[in-house]
Amino acid sequence: MQLIAENAKPLTGPEAAEVAAGDALFKGNCAQCHAVNEQVVGPALGGLTNRRPMSWILPWVKNSSKVVASGDEYAVAVFNKFNKQQIPSFALSDKEITSIVAYINSQEGTSMAIAAAH
Ligand code: HEC
């Protein structure tokens, strides 16, 4: 299994393990609707940590409708933009979601964003 995309910076140690875990979780839960660098059913997730802080991403992935219902401006806008299509709620832990974000960042090759995801 190739863990790291050709254009990504090589990772070592715990970061590599986290990205590998995130890779598997992303493929199992998110890839049917998302890609990192292109829009599929949902938006391209590349650059996510530049747009949203982890404190937004965690509750969103766990229960996006709750974030929309709270009146969060960004959430309402992205929800409306995608024709009010619901993203499923995921019973993932903070650690699992963080590893998915680390995977997304690794696919863009931004190692700075990986540090920000911790
Ligand atoms: C059934 C399709 C589907 C699945 C599966 C899915 N999403 Fe989504 N996602 C969407 C749609 C559609 C949107 C656009 C917002 C909305 O409609 O609520 C979205 C929006 C998002 C956003 C906001 C993106 C942005 O640029 O603001 C994030 C973050 C996100 N999804 C992460 C994930 C993660 C992580 C997973 C896997 C754990 C996942 N999604 C699984 C359909 C999906």
TrEMBL record:
Give UniProt keywords alphabetically.
Answer: Heme, Iron, Metal-binding
Q: Where is the Cytochrome c domain?
A: 17-108
Q: Name one Pfam family in it.
A: Cytochrom_C
What the entry lists under InterPro entries is as follows:
Cyt_c-like_dom (IPR009056), Cyt_c-like_dom_sf (IPR036909)
The keyword Iron is annotated on this UniProt entry: yes
Listed name of the protein? Mono/diheme cytochrome c family protein
- The scientific name of the source species is Hymenobacter artigasi
